[in-house]
Amino acid sequence: YLYVDVEVEKNNSKDAQQVAAKTMDDVYKSLRKLGIKKDEVETVNYSMNVIKDYYGNQPPYQIKAYKVENSIKVTIADLEKVSEVIDAVNKSTYVSIDTLAFGLEDSKKAESEAVVDATSNAKEKAEAIAKNLNVKINGIKSVEIVDKNQESHSYDLPYNSDSGATKSSSTPISAKNIEIERAIEVKFLVQ
């Protein structure tokens, strides 16, 4: 996932909103040109705030500017396209890349496999302990998943567009394998 932010400050709210809308529209057009579908883009934040001048002043505080923020989450299934997408959307000084996060398309399947592996591991260890103590396992008292899974890894990218700069190469991105791990606690009954 790529999180893209548009942030605009202007002296009046209408200008701030219009510039933010035009900028985000340009981002969407860039995404469409790269084959990113409409359902692969999701708005995750939109806000318009008044910025007041509090420094050295007494109420009522004067309005300094209006700030519009619009953030989207872009799902990029093809890892080979990540650099190209970053470079394509980051053409305005109002655009910044917030976060790049890697995840799995089918995390439920991977989580289920991790639970099966953790359960098998717990059973093997319990059998070894029971054998060493000369007791037999005759049931299970309880089973509990004891941790929350991290299904994606996030990397902050300190990358902001400079419209005056020319880019001669793509933004380098490296992804590693994603591992799903589960820890469980099994309490066995012994005799």
Provide an overview of this structure.
Helix content is 29%, strand content 33%. It is of the alpha+beta class and 191 residues long. It starts with a strand and ends with a strand. Mean pLDDT is 83; it is low at 149-168.
The share of residues in extended strands comes to 25-35%
Give the overall pLDDT as a whole number: 83
Q: Which structural category fits the helices and strands?
A: alpha+beta
Number of helices: 3
Report on the biggest sheet: 5 strands, antiparallel
Terminal Cα span: 51 Å
Strand order of the largest sheet: 2-3-1-4-6
What key phrases describe this protein's structure?
single chain, 191 residues, alpha+beta, 5-stranded antiparallel β-sheet, two-stranded antiparallel ribbon, 33% strand
Task: List the SSEs and their pairings.
Layout (H helix, E strand, L loop, with lengths): L1 E9 L2 H21 L7 E13 L8 E13 L7 H8 L5 E8 L4 H26 L4 E9 L7 E4 L27 E7 L1
Antiparallel strand pairs: 1-3, 1-4, 2-3, 4-6, 5-7
Summarize it.
By secondary structure, the protein is of the alpha+beta class.
